[in-house]
Amino acid sequence: MWRLEQFKKQGGFQFLMNMCTTKTLFYALSIFPFFSGSKKSLEIFRLAIANRTYRYISRKFKGTKVTYEFSDTSMEKIAQNKNAIWFMWKQGMENAPRLVKYNLAVLQKKFGKDRVKIITEKNLFDYIELPEFIKIKIERKIISPTHFSDIVRIQLLATYGGMWVDSTLLFSGDLPEVIYNQSFFVPQTLKPGRDGKVIPVSNWLIISKSNSDIVNRMRDLLFYYWEIYDRPVDYFIFHHLLMLVFDELLSEYQDMIVYDNTQPHALLIAMKTKKMDTKEIKEYIQLSPIHKLTNKLDTAFEEENQKKLIEFVKEELINDNYK
């Protein structure tokens, strides 16, 4: 039963189809008997498959010469949105969960309402252009909301620069100033936790200068991927392609400040593991200036933890100014 649940959690038959596409199915079947005894073994199995998947993507896309032309965005519009904080809830903030609304309120208080740009399906194309084939695949629901968000964030940053903040990312403090000045930045797993991970990066926080080499190359590869594929060969296709770009533009990647992406998950992991009181939540908040959270709650105690967190954010980070 546990193995069946894990199979479904990994995507079920879609996972098998992806392995067929990336030519990893035979490899997976050959090693699975050695890694199916425990959850830890299954994690090692997933890492092995991820490595094979990256090899497939690298062979397919590395060095591919592809560019996409767009009509020039006016210099005035670019200037108006320079150093913007990009925050997206496709359905509109009036339909957003409380956690998302409060995360936005914290950002607006910290960086200013004018600087935080709220992206929705109603105003999206006021800011960016997308190739027609992507628009068609979005309309036909070939591209999922999650992967559509990946497309939006990279095109916004390529056009304007600034900082992309996921709707479930909470700012409770200040990042080091040097991070904001990077030509391109994403959090990433550090050694020794990085060992064995082929995609050790996160994309819930991205900082970029407009038209930086990395952001432009990433945008072009992501667009090209969705031009030739009708589904993701891996849920983390953005991360695979980004690591490929880092490999191609190694000197720019090596110049990027390294910032750990594991500590920002500590509060989320704790909230999914045990019942917490407000004091514990505050202690975890103090461990990092940013926290990757979720709207997906699986148990009653997770819901209670979320309520306590939201109340803490309202009382101590927004100071009752949220409306």
Automatic annotation (TrEMBL):
The keyword Membrane applies. Keywords: Membrane, Transferase, Transmembrane, Transmembrane helix. InterPro entries: AfumC-like_glycosyl_Trfase, Nucleotide-diphossugar_trans. Coiled coil: none annotated. The chain crosses the membrane at residues 12-35. GO terms for molecular function: glycosyltransferase activity. This is Glycosyl transferase. It comes from Leuconostoc citreum (strain KM20).
